[in-house]
UniProtKB/TrEMBL annotation:
It comes from marine sediment metagenome. The keyword Aminoacyl-tRNA synthetase does not apply. The lineage of its organism: unclassified sequences, metagenomes, ecological metagenomes. The keyword Protein transport does not apply. This is GntR C-terminal domain-containing protein. Residues 2-71 form the GntR C-terminal domain. GO terms for molecular function: DNA binding. Coiled coil: none annotated.
Length: 91
């Protein structure tokens, strides 16, 4: 959470900061869901790749690693939600 907060607070986009602050509860819920299927080590590896891309100030690389990170989190969250759906149909 602190990593994501640090990035959002330092993005330089006031509107984005306000939007993320308003969505904080939903973001926290989704992050918890995705972490049920994503390993901590995998998340750390992705976060380090994001930090390295930011240090290099390489916009193309930043976009690439952020999209990979978001795509993996999305897939993980959807898989977890789908498993709930399948479980509720059985029971």
């Amino acid at each position: 959470k602190k990593f994501h907060d640090l990035l959002s607070q330092n993005c330089g986009n006031k509107k984005l900061i306000e939007l993320l602050a308003n969505l904080q509860e939903q973001i926290h819920w989704l992050r918890n869901i995705s972490l049920k299927r994503i390993t901590f080590a995998g998340s750390v590896k992705e976060h380090l790749a994001i930090i390295e891309a930011l240090k290099k100030n390489d916009e193309e690389l930043i976009n690439k690693v952020l999209l990979q990170h978001l795509e993996r989190a999305k897939k993980s969250s959807l898989a977890e939600i789908n498993s709930w759906s399948n479980t509720s149909k059985i029971g």
